[in-house]
Amino acid sequence: MAESSRITARDGVRADARRNRERILVAARAVFAERGIDAPMAAVARRAGVGVATLYRHFPTRDALVRGAYAQQMETCARALTEALAAPDPWQGFRHLVETVCALQREERGFPAAFAAAFPETTPELARARQRAERDVLTLVRRAQAAGSLRADFRPSDLAVVLLAHCGLVTALPDDEAASRRLVAYLLQSFRVGPAGAPLPPPAALSLRSLPMAAGGRPGRGFPGA
């Protein structure tokens, strides 16, 4: 085979591999959004139109597939934390971080569970990444408290509570951006010291009858008198 033919063949194999990898990542995000990040790997392979062996060749473990599927979102979170630490106003930095992560939870339905399971400590590198993120969040919290803008009794673990609460909302109401924005605004105002600041976003178009539907996945009669 001529050298030019061998190069063309190799390029074709690499292009096929890139296309397969991209199909797998697109399929993974779709399957994880529908069935959660514990969905069978075979389901992802079927959605991507590739064999299970091909999937495992690109992503040997579930953790690798989850990290690959949401690599862009994780990078956005890391960048938001860096930007928050660099912000001249610690409160604005804190607010930027919370709003950015919650927006990602809202925009990518499978991301909340992936974020909750982020940085599994399966390697020393991942363990260091988790420790670094936790240290940076603690620094951000302490700066905002020292500036007198964040409640003195706020703890970094409260940020996990915020994200879990918002995760529950966007899981139950994945298409309700108004409800998401209003919850985030309420939570941020509850953490701030001093004046409440900007008005809340417009209310969501919900009623008490929405609660059984959101919680049970089917319409209900609502509360008595609702």
From TrEMBL:
Parts forming coiled coils: none
Highest taxon, organism lineage: Bacteria
An example Gene Ontology molecular-function term: DNA-binding transcription factor activity
Feature: DNA-binding region: 40-59
Keywords: DNA-binding, Transcription, Transcription regulation
Record Gene3D superfamilies: Tetracycline Repressor, domain 2 (1.10.357.10)
Name of a matching Pfam family: TetR_C_43
InterPro entries, alphabetized: Homeodomain-like_sf, HTH-type_TetR-like_transc_reg, HTH_TetR, Tet_transcr_reg_TetR-rel_C_sf, TetR_SbtR-like_C
Domain HTH tetR-type: from-to ranges: 18-77
Protein name as catalogued: TetR family transcriptional regulator
Record lineage: Bacteria, Bacillati, Actinomycetota, Actinomycetes, Kitasatosporales
